[in-house]
Amino acid sequence: MGITDRFDLDGHGSDVRTEAIAGVTTFLAMAYIIVVNPAILSAAIQIDGFDEIQVFQMIAMATILASVVATVVMAFYANRPFGLAPGMGLNAFFAFTVVIALGIPWQTALAAVFVEGILFILLTAVGAREYIINLFPKPVKYAVGAGIGAFLLFIGLQEMQVIVGYEGTLVELGDVAATPGALLGVLGVLFTLILWARGVTGSIVIGILTTAAAGWVAAIAGLTAPENVVDDGLYFTFAEEGIAAGIVQLITTVQFDFTPLAGAFLDGLADIDPLTFTFVVFTFLFVDFFDTAGTLIGVSQFGDFLDEEGELPEMDKPLMADAVGTTVGAMLGTSTVTTYIESSTGVEEGGRTGLTALVVAACFLLAIPFIALVPLLPEYASFLALVVVGVMMFQGVVDIKWDHPAWAISATLTILVMPLAYSIADGLAAGIVAFPIIKAAMGENDDVHPGQWVLAVLIITYYVLQTGGFIL
Q1: What DSSP letter does each residue of 177-204 carry, written as one string?
Q2: Alpha-carbon distance 92 to 90, whole Å?
Q3: End-to-end CA distance of the chain
Q4: Which of 136, 349, 362, 447 has its CA 20 to 30 A from that of 472?
Q5: Are 181 and 378 a contacting pair, CB within 8 Å?
Q6: Which of 33, 385, 382, 34 is nearest to 215 (CA)?
Q7: 434-98-168 Cα angle (round to 5)
Q8: Eight-state DSSP code of residue 254
Q9: Exposed/middle/buried for 273, CB within 10 Å: 0-12, 13-18, 19+?
Q10: 49 conformational bin, left if phi > 0, alpha if psi -120 to 50, beta if neither
């Protein structure tokens, strides 16, 4: 069976050239994750005997391979033109909330992702998607993307030192003009947003690389310090001996062996706190499930894949690709894998089948040799992607019924509590609890699903125990 027949290109009105171009386009739009995911997770993952750069490279390897596995499943099992990779927002929750804020070992966090992936596979296999989607309030579903976007925006601005800590008000605007890294980061964000607004394919990648190049020119000229993960010795190799010598040193020290990271989730399954572990798994499951479902519906609108009722036929198949990717990703050493909204760029280029996804997977594999060059990217260049993606994720708020009090309150709490509490889980909880209460107060209790009340009570109980000092 040839490629044309295997992916039914004729039936989808496509051809190999169109699918190839679409796949490359999607990869360029989402390739920033190879840099950003390690930048986020390395803040929480430390491995004895390995330095920061080596751990960074290990996570980059896990990121690429998890993306390849999930996208190949999407290609051959679901035959959809969607790319998958570790999700933005979920990796921030993994690193900054679960590991750093809650103090849970990163191995245990990986175990939670693994369990979530297994549960996702089971739920998808038994066709439980409809039930789960109907159980959560609609305003929360529509607000999750914007809430994660606000959280990413906040993290990115902090990492670039645009927003800094201040005792009186907790945070304030940093000395951007006097901080070279912050200034370059702001200019990089502006440049990237301009590219995105003009519809330039791969705008985030171009923005990262351009900002990094500007930073290195400034560093070599002595105008700034090497504000990145490269150690001083390597920096001076570049500055004093030239680019070629620096690249040689990078390649000879690259850490392609990521076995110290792979399989760490098994250690995390031992000696866990059941209640905390369950809540973390639930949060991963909820955010991943609905983020994926929303992305699939949104991207499918571009490709006219939806039926007359607005549903994606055989939606369980792409959801299964997501679930398998998450499970394998946890085994390899990365956070939850999800379908990327950037897949819409490839769909707009004409991608209609799994061949587009297969090309995306191939591009990820071809990126492996360049892992050695990842440490050349300054942190302010890497984290500008968080700010840009955070802005993009606010597009979903147009679906929220802001003139309905229950919707407005639930959605607003979901969006704002996430960055203010520095926790995606807390934002979700606030929105889920508020919805049935406000609906009942408006005399619309008949519109509230009984399961929503049960979930609200469970969440309230958890937070009473947590904030009362009985757990964690």
Answers
A1: TT-HHHHHHHHHHHHHHHHHHTT-TTHH
A2: 5
A3: 56
A4: 136
A5: yes
A6: 382
A7: 75
A8: -
A9: middle
A10: left
In the block, residue with structure tokens 């979901």: 414
C-alpha distances in Å from residue 8, one per residue of 5, 12, 316, 363:
5, 6, 19, 22
Contact 250, 372 (CB under 8 A): yes
Measured between alpha carbons, how far is 318 from 322 in angstroms, rounded to an integer?
6
How would DSSP label each residue in 452-467? Answer: HHHHHHHHHHHHHHHH
Q: Which candidate, 344, 363, 359, places its Cα nearest to that of 17?
A: 359
Residues contacting 334, CB < 8 A, separation 6+: 37, 41, 59, 62, 63, 66, 86, 91
What is the predicted pLDDT for the residue at 298? 62
Measured in degrees and rounded to the nearest 5, phi and psi for residue 410 equal: -65, -45
Determine the distance from the C-alpha atom of residue 14 to the mean position of all C-alpha atoms in its chain, rounded to a whole number: 30
- How many angstroms separate the Cα of 238 from the Cα of each of 53, 175, 185, 305, 463? 16, 29, 22, 50, 51
Lookup: tokens for 312: 């994606």
Judge contact between 204 and 385, C-beta under 8 A. Answer: yes
* Amino acid at the residue 354: G
The residue type found at 34 is I
Rounded Cα–Cα distance for residues 461 and 279 (Å): 12
Tokens of 8: 């039914």
Please answer whether residues 351 and 109 qualify as being in contact, where contact means their C-beta atoms are separated by less than 8 angstroms: no
d(CA 140, CA 321): 24
**Residue stretches of the chain with pLDDT short of 70:** 1, 129-135, 222-255, 286-287, 290-291, 294, 297-298, 301-303, 306, 308-311, 372-377, 469-472
Place of tokens 């909820």: 286
User: Which residues are CB-neighbours of 311 under 8 A, at least 6 positions away?
Assistant: none
Helix (H, G, I), strand (E, B) or coil at 279: helix
The pLDDT score that the predictor gives to residue 466 is: 72
Distance of CA 10 to the CA centre of its chain: 34
Asked if 184 and 212 touch (Cβ cutoff 8 Å), the reply is: no
Would you state the structure tokens that stand for residue 63, as one six-digit string? 């990121």
Answer for the pair 379, 228: CB distance below 8 angstroms, yes or no. yes
Nearest partner of 280 among 470, 84, 119, 72, judged by Cα: 119
